[in-house]
Amino acid sequence: MTNKVERSLFDDVMVPCYNPMSVIPVEGKGSRVWDQEGKEYVDFAGGIAVSCLGHCHEDLVNAVTTQANKLWHLSNVMTNEPALRLAKKLTDISFADKVFFANSGAEANEAALKLARRVAVDKFGADKSEIIAFKKGFHGRTFFTVTVGGQEAYSDGFGPKPGQVTHLEYNDVDALKAHFSDKTCAVMMEPLQGEGGIISSSPEFIKAVRELCDEHNALLIFDEVQTGNGRTGTFYAYEGLGITPDILTTAKSLGGGFPIGAMLTTDEFAPHMKVGTHGSTYGGNPLACAVAEAVVDVVAQPETLKGVKEREALIREGLQQIDEKYDVFSELRGQGLLLGAVLNDQWKDRARDILVAAGQHGLMVLVAGTNVVRFTPSLIIPIEDIKEGLARLDKAIASLR
Fold first, then answer.
1. Are 148 and 133 contacting, i.e. CB atoms less than 8 angstroms apart?
2. Binding residues for N(2)-acetyl-L-ornithine, per the UniProt record (predicted)?
3. 51 among annotated binding-site residues
4. What is the pTM of this model?
5. Which of 2, 292, 351, 381 is the most buried (most CB within 10 A)?
6. What is the pLDDT of residues 117-138, one digit of tens each?
7. Binding residue per annotation — 105?
């Protein structure tokens, strides 16, 4: 008989950069999760927009077990069949012509930023090096990406930061126009800010970003790590915005829970990443790519994407009904199944209280800052699970009044 693994072991053996809840999940199926005690949870969190097809989806389980019995890893001295098939599927479904595989969103963003700088140096010289990003943005935890991300709480305290990074207000067209110059090499942005509070870009802002990039020979990088792979109801969020980026990064739900990231770009810019300029030991490994293939096959189906919008409407309706009862939200933000409920003044800064209470009532949710409760469930979460999850959220909020 094995000894039960206790939450207290975390404090003994793990670096304390996380503060996990007391429960330890041990099993998941679809949009339901069970902890060590057998308590059941409805999952409205999806591992932070990762588990796009829920837990242990049959197609993903088949993909990983089939590939696990064939080939796990080679190295990028050679290529492999799953990587090539996945790259073809991603280019077929997007604006891109070329793909670079990594292991995470941060690594995909690191590759995107390096490519943008490389293009600028090759074509215009070293002085064209400024990267414009936006306050409250989030692009990963490497030193380069956390510096480009617009949240000082994540980037301060590690010494001198990489230079030539400017942060502007998101959706401020006038500030963007005033600052942009021929020294700008790239703009990096989320088409819908996730960690910063589920903030959508305005049509005027998106249009201005694309036009200024074209005018000043700068590259537009869309960080679709959280918005991509069906999350907003189109395969990539840019499809609903009327513009196309030069570089796009994707991760999180690309592997449905298996670590993988990718940078997508065009034939015009890809050649600047010559042999030896960048790489990844595990990037593009057969195991991850086989799982991601299965994810793309399911998510790209029209009925899956249509279902995202239908589920969004149901969750919005349920949140509005909860608000009518308890007067808790000032605004519902987001698109598809990347939604944020902004707390009103009476509930200000109590997002984590709601997260904890929801957990006590058998519901997994997220926060985006101290004032937004975030919902990123499976794209195919059953309707009955949505109704049950909303009922548990109702009880959780009632318990806090």
1. yes
2. 141, 280
3. no
4. 0.96
5. 292
6. 999 999 999 999 999 999 999 9
7. yes
